[in-house]
Model the fold of this input.
Amino acid sequence: MKHLNARKLKLLMNLWPPFWGSGIKVLELDENWQYAKIRLRKYWFNRNYVNTHYGGALFSMTDPFYMLLLLHKLGRDYVVWDKKAEIKFIKPGRKDVYAEFKLSEQDLLDINLQLKEQDVIEPVFEVDIHDEDGQLIAKVWKTIHIARKESAK
Done:
């Protein structure tokens, strides 16, 4: 997938059945692979018994993005995959919700410095899910496994 640019990957992800079938849409995917913005619409088919967002859809909207950003940012010399995820529901989601994924220059500098000293690192990224009014709905922590390819064998 390294040959895909961000625009093409955004289009493919928006056509990907697990996303469009859940009401998830990639709104932005930065060409520099440092930012993504995702929306989860509230529909009749992705709400739960009490008419709020189904927790699994909230969790799914955060699934691949830090892995994808880091995979493209670090390049082919590294194995990058989602190792662990945790979600904390703060309040019921009754409207469309959004999540933003940001890799700062400092994040990338820290990761590259750690990879010079260690063959494997597992940074944790925090993602907030907000509704359209800015209310915090959930927090997600993503642990990303990053290893030099030669040490991953």
